[in-house]
Amino acid sequence: MTVATWSSRYGWAENHNDRLPALAADLVRRRVAVIVALGTASALAAKGATQTIPIVFRAGSEPVEIGLVASFNRPGGNLTGIANLSGPMVSKRLALLHELLPAATIATLVNSANPRFTQIETRDLQAAASVLGVRVLVLNGGAASDIAGAFATLVEQQAGALLISADDFGSCSTRSNHVAGGSLCDTHHVCRPAHLP
Known about the structure:
Elements: H1 20-29, E1 35-38, H2 40-49, E2 55-59, E3 79-83, H3 86-100, E4 106-110, H4 115-132, E5 136-140, H5 144-156, E6 161-164, H6 175-188
Parallel strand pairs: 1-2, 2-3, 4-5, 4-6
Helix pairs in contact: 1-2, 3-4, 5-6
């Protein structure tokens, strides 16, 4: 009888995406069998670290556009995974919020710790806002320490609603951002539709 054994190694960059390449390189040095990358920035770091170890990712953005895979039909390379394709959905989410509050300025809280995703999502959001004639404020919420400042701007600009980025805010690494943001929404009476990452 053959007995198979396995182990797992968990790495966390503590909301410092600049640490991700070193964490990915460490996994490559350890000759792991597979890398599971939760989040766009983690997947990009893993891709940069190896072209041979299989990588399974969960990304918040369109994997072809950000350069994770060559195409949906033939991803190529050593990556496969799932993406919530939030880019196409950001216009739908904005339209729904605008329908609920047609006169409101809408703020969006983005994760600046992930610049590639933020750039794509902000571009799509601003295009949708232009079509709808909605004023949108883009606020940085990449770290828990950014949340209070973002809300100060939101209140100062009299935004009536908050659209939370679909990026890695939902991961365990930024769960505190959701809690802080939700509490401040309640304190400042800002409409915040439920968002499941």
